[in-house]
Each structure stands twice: as C-alpha cells, then as structure tokens.
Amino acid sequence: FVIDITLFTLFFSVTGSVYQSTFIARALSSIYNFAGNRYVIFRTFANQNALSEAIKYFALVVLIAGISGTLVTYFAAATHWSPTFCKVGADLLLYFLSFLIRRIFIFSRRQ
C-alpha cells in the first residue's frame, strides 16, 4: 500500500495524470505485492499454480487500478482535495474488495 501511494505521488507530480500515475504505480508495486501476497499473506507455495495465480492476480491489478483511477478522479473533482489524499481513501475502500477476491479466486487453497 505504501509503495503504491508513494509511487503514485511521484508519478503524479511528473505526469499530472491520475490514470497514468495509477497504472504505472500499480504495475510497479504489483510485482512486489504478488510475491508478498502469495508467500506471506496466503502462504501459497505450490509452483504448479504460480502461472495461473499470476495471470488472475495481474488481471485483478488492472481492474482495481481502473476503478481506483476513476474514484480518485471523481473524489478529487468533487472535493478539490489532493489526488494523493483521495487515492488513500479510494484504495482503502478497494483493499477489502481486492482482498476477498484474492482470497477466494486467486490464492484459494482448493486444488
């Protein structure tokens, strides 16, 4: 979460684009996050599932990034708050949805 917000802030200061900054930050942070989610959070070690999990995980990354970018754009326009502040709020909301999807569909212990 901290990596994503930090990268978003950095890229937003350069590009001025919420969507570009969201997708670039999420793409970079997702590599680290995939490994952390797979091994630490969900304790998935079976290598035979790694490709399938990666494909589903990165599809979810794209979906959540799109929703996040939309929410940040809307919240920033409606409130005139900084996009970074809006991103923290939007991503906290999306975290719970994303966690459930990861737990049920991506890193499921069912074989």
Give a written overview of the molecule.
- There is one protein chain.
- This protein is mainly alpha-helical and 111 residues long.
- Helices cover 83% and strands 0% of the residues.
- It contains 4 helices and no strands.
- It has helices spanning 2-15, 18-41, 50-79, 83-106.
- α1 crosses α4 (83-106).
- The protein is elongated and about 45 Å long.
- The model has no long low-confidence stretch (mean pLDDT 90).
Which secondary structure elements does this structure contain, and how are they paired or packed?
Elements: H1 2-15, H2 18-41, H3 50-79, H4 83-106
Helix pairs in contact: 1-2, 1-4, 2-3, 3-4
Return the structural class: mainly alpha
What characteristic shape results from the CA principal axes?
elongated
Element string (H = helix, E = strand): HHHH
The major β-sheet equals: none
Number of strands: 0
Radius of gyration: 15 Å
Measured by DSSP, the beta-strand proportion falls in: under 5%
First CA to last CA: what distance? Answer: 29 Å
- Determine the fraction of residues in helical runs and give it as a percent range: over 70%
Observed structural traits:
single chain; 111 residues; mainly alpha; 4 helices; elongated
What's the quick description here?
Helices cover 83% and strands 0% of the residues. The protein is an all-alpha fold and 111 residues long.
